[in-house]
Amino acid sequence: MESLKLFAPKIYIEAVTLNAEFTNMPQVGSDENIITPAQQINLAPAVSQEVCEDEGLEGMGSFGIGHTDNLDSGGSCTCMVANSRLPRGYEHGRFHLLGLGCYFVLESLFIMSFSGLRRHGGTPPIAPLGIEPAEDAYRCMTVCYPPKSMISAAGAYVHPLASLPGRAQQDGLLMLGPEITSQMNPQRPPTSNHANWASDGIVIMERKSLFRFFVRSLLQLCAFLLGQLSQTLGARIDSTKFLSAFSFIDDNGKRYYLGPWMGAEDGIVVVTPCEDSSTWGVDVPSCVYDDTPLSTEADLNDENREQSTTNPQSRSMPNKR
């Protein structure tokens, strides 16, 4: 990103920054990375000069032939970093931008930024004349690139977000496709022939009962997913704030917000365990909860007025749509 900021127009940096925020693009490597959400490592073994003279340059496979990366985004660029530690005297190899008629010598820690939609290719490292290439003589290239499926809000990228219980291999992953992640996706909500609470709960439950159950289930799901993050993050959920972000309209036409989730065991009221990091994510689904009354919008506004002298921030974020 630092190399790009040195040369790219300010308006371009602002545009890609806004796009990364809008599409919730994973910022890989650095939190400032807002152009290349995908990375790969390319390894190329060194070849002998004799082989080059007899058979031409080899060892790069299809990457050494002039090509374009047609699945890259036209609104971003590829950034390559040479990380080689070749023996002394070896030719590092070169990277060619064929359409521009130029090349770069791939010395260690050399950085290139270019559009993968331009025709490009490379040559492998070459051992000195008369010397057989060492077995560990490899060039290592870190390629950070921008798939249009991840850059575009209308892309087709599927996020393997987390694991699901009781499943094996890829079937056990929670996959977030564009139906979920893209605000530009025109598809209607999915339906199923199987009975489920989201579609059918309204038939057998009161509105407030269904909404409370469904949102609390979302809290349980979030607790399960966050539990898969590294413990070094110390991830926690403020269950009261989480629940208060959801609202619905009851039969009386009034909008209601969900109040705190309290549990009652043996006559003792226990605060939601999410507030205790030692039990977070474990006890939330297992407690027995009572029928806590819902807070009305009016009550919520009164509470906000009381807290306005110390906390001027709004209780909920505005709808971006």
How would you describe this protein?
This is Unplaced genomic scaffold K443scaffold_690, whole genome shotgun sequence. It comes from Laccaria amethystina LaAM-08-1. The chain has 3 domains: 150 residues, Double-stranded beta-helix (4-Layer Sandwich), CATH 3.60.130; 32 residues, no CATH class; 113 residues, no CATH class. It has 9 helices and 14 strands. Strand 12 and strand 13 form a beta hairpin. The strands form 5 sheets. The chain has a 4-stranded antiparallel beta sheet, with no helix packed on it. Strands 4-3-6 form a 3-stranded antiparallel beta sheet, with no helix packed on it. A 3-stranded antiparallel beta sheet has the order 10-11-14. It has 321 residues and is an alpha+beta fold. The two termini are 30 Å apart. The longest helix is centred in the last third of the chain and has 20 residues.
| Strand segment tally | 14
Which oligomeric state applies? single chain
Low-confidence stretches: 264-321
Shape: elongated
Helix content: 10-25%
Q: What separation lies between the terminal Cα atoms?
A: 30 Å
SS content category: alpha+beta
Q: Can you tell me the CATH topology of the largest domain?
A: Double-stranded beta-helix
Q: Averaged pLDDT, please?
A: 75
The largest β sheet comes out as: 4 strands, antiparallel
**How large is the count of helical segments?**
9
Please give the radius of gyration in angstroms: 28 Å
CATH class label of the largest domain: Alpha Beta
Strand content: 15-25%
H/E element order: HHEHEEEEEEHEEHHHHEEEEEH
Q: What is the second-level CATH architecture of the largest domain?
A: 4-Layer Sandwich
Number of domains: 3
Question: Strand sequence of the main sheet, in spatial order?
Answer: 1-7-2-5
Biased composition (Polar residues): 307-321
Protein name: Unplaced genomic scaffold K443scaffold_690, whole genome shotgun sequence
Region (Disordered): 293-321
